[in-house]
Amino acid sequence: MTTPASITPCDFHGTPALRLTSGDGATAVVSLLGGQLLSWVPPGEKEQLFVGERAVFDGSKPIRGGVPVCFPQFADLGGLPKHGLLRTRRWEVSDQSQHNGCTLVSLVCGDDAASRAQWPHAFRAELTVAIEGERLDLELSLTNPGEAPFAFTGALHTYLKVAEVEEVSLEGLYGLDYLDKLKDAAPTRETAPSLVVDREVDRIYYDCARPLLLRDEQHTLGINAEGFSDVVVWNPWEGAEARFPDLAAKDFRRFLCVEAAVARQPVTVAPGEEWWGRQTVVVLS
Hints:
Elements (H helix, E strand, L loop, with lengths): L5 E7 L2 E7 L5 E5 L4 E6 L27 E2 L21 E8 L2 E9 L2 H6 L5 E9 L2 E9 L6 E7 L2 E3 L7 E3 L5 E4 L7 E2 L4 E3 L4 E5 L6 E4 L4 E7 L3 E6 L4 H4 L11 E15 L4 E10 L2
């Protein structure tokens, strides 16, 4: 059944957002607060992204869930606030289109006096969200309009919704080196054919150039990244609500973060140059 493709303003829990609809019935919601994808529903499927029931949408803190944009610092890998400067900033629409079955919107965010007080660099961040059929594409581009190079780490911090996190498996990480952030140790080689989450997990897998498969009893997601060198896998496990007040007690069971990231080695962007990275998620079954 053909659905009229559209991009329309909407209100998502009180925050201004855009609702995307593709010609085949896929939908997505992108918040102007944080430039954050908050919903993605392929045709005939359920919601694929997790947003916490206690998530805060007033800009006082980052929205818990969806796909936050982490820049210019991933996690605590530096002296900036955790995950950088963009998650509570207002983004603006730079482009939108509907053609050949694909619906696309691009949002931009740049430096200002407040950002330069914390990180003294000019930048332009642009996030492009495209939906078509069972496919979601997220592309992050970072441009340096300044006169000096800057180096960054970052990620698309993707919260994938699952029915029960203990019943999913993540394939494609075998043989990769990873840093376990829960341990004070050197990188470890992954020897399991698939990752099964039965406790807290916070790992940075290095140099992942292959597609990943997230499987549960109902469907499989294919996850692929370009430009991003690393993959982060995170779930805070039971008791997370004590550390993260915007998570409810059972929320940890409903998501697994599989993040396209630049974490091990910062990327340097020269004046006048641009870096880009993309994460693609496809419902396979």
